Amino acid sequence: NMTLLHTTDPAVADTEEFVEPLLTADAVYFFGGRQWRLVDAYGGTRTEEEIRKVLDRGGVIGGSSAGASIQGSFLVRGDTRTNLVMMGDHQVGFGYLRNVGIDQHVLRRNRQFDLVEVIEAHPELLGIALDENTAVVVQRDQFEVIGASYVLIYDNQSTTGENGKFYFLAPGDQYNLATREATRPGRTMSPVDNVQKKPWGGS
């Protein structure tokens, strides 16, 4: 069975009646849109609390587009004016993945350099950028790439420096969030040395 929950009013999201389907849910899926709207509607409410409990009891949380970005602790493209601003007026996500910022549509919309700005400003973060029709399946400290395209990883060290780590992961590749190492079936992957700046002069 599936139940669709939707409100833009945090007062509604904080009621027992609204969260009732979540009490026995074993999965939650966030649709796309603008990620800051999810924060404004559900942040700090019983809904956010009960969704966290779904994960805590072994359930699954997923999402696409904005629904993927909301799952990181840092909210990428959380600006209410435009989704072109990487570090906007909403910077706190729901944090199902801690110390992580998640971007999406990365290759389809030529966004492969955008997370560099975030990681340079917040070197404690790990950047994960998903292309369309592609996902990561996270179990404990490791995830596997599934789907039709690629996932880009921006390490929390100096991504544009000589010691920076930048991974370009294909379906079937795995990444360890604890050791910050990637593996391809049968071998350990080596990171790209650095991420080049945009060739047309942007940063």
Model description:
Helix content is 19%, strand content 26%. The chain is α/β, with parallel strands linked by helices and 203 residues long. The protein has a single domain (10-188), classed as Class I glutamine amidotransferase (GATase) domain (Rossmann fold, 3-Layer(aba) Sandwich), CATH 3.40.50.880. The strands form three sheets. A five-stranded mixed beta sheet has the order 3-4-5-8-9. The termini are far apart.
Features:
Rossmann fold, 6 helices, 5-stranded mixed sheet, 203 residues, 5-stranded antiparallel sheet, globular, alpha/beta
| Main sheet strand line-up | 3-4-5-8-9
Number of extended strands:
12
Find the structural class using helix and strand composition. Answer: alpha/beta
Largest sheet: 5 strands, mixed
Figure out the total of helices: 6
How would you spell out the order of helices and strands? Answer: HHEHHEHEEHEEEEEEEE
Helix content: 10-25%
Question: How many structural domains are formed by the residues?
Answer: 1
CATH fold description: Rossmann fold
According to CATH, the homologous superfamily is Class I glutamine amidotransferase (GATase) domain
Rounded to the nearest angstrom, the distance between the terminal CA atoms is 47 Å
Quick structural overview:
The protein has one domain: Class I glutamine amidotransferase (GATase) domain (Rossmann fold), CATH 3.40.50.880.
Describe the secondary-structure layout.
Elements: H1 10-13, H2 16-19, E1 27-30, H3 35-42, H4 46-56, E2 60-63, H5 66-69, E3 72-74, E4 97-104, H6 114-121, E5 126-130, E6 134-139, E7 142-147, E8 151-154, E9 166-169, E10 174-176, E11 181-184, E12 187-188
Parallel strand pairs: 1-2, 3-4, 4-5
Antiparallel strand pairs: 5-8, 6-7, 7-10, 8-9, 10-11, 11-12
